[in-house]
Design a protein that fits this description.
Pfam families: EutQ. It is built from no helices and nine strands. The strands form three sheets. A four-stranded antiparallel sheet has the order 3-8-5-6, with no helix packed on it. A hairpin with a 2-residue loop joins strand 1 and strand 2.
Length: 93
């Protein structure tokens, strides 16, 4: 992991955060706002109110802090992810 001010990039694969083909995140809640820009693959999200959206390459998906959602991954997805996180202490990165 490297840090530049408050920008952080995890350039190494973190297997705990990867979804394999056919896996889902059920009733997941982010601790901070997140924006995903879909690059490859397709994912279907279902919000806590039942609203369904399908993300395809070029789509931008916003996940608000504290809101529950389910993400279904029928094949695989690759996305550019931006998070609104609290300030980081560079010594902890």
């Amino acid at each position: 992991m490297c840090s530049l001010g408050n920008a952080v990039s995890n350039y190494k694969t973190n297997a705990e955060n990867l979804l394999n083909k056919g896996q889902s995140l059920k009733d997941f809640v982010h601790r901070f706002d997140e924006v995903n820009i879909m690059l490859e693959g397709e994912a279907t999200t279902t919000g806590s109110q039942g609203k369904i959206a399908t993300g395809k390459p070029g789509n931008v998906i916003f996940f608000p802090k504290g809101k529950s959602f389910t993400l279904d991954n029928p094949d695989y997805i690759m996305a550019f992810i931006v998070n609104q996180r609290p300030s980081l202490d560079a010594s902890n990165v």
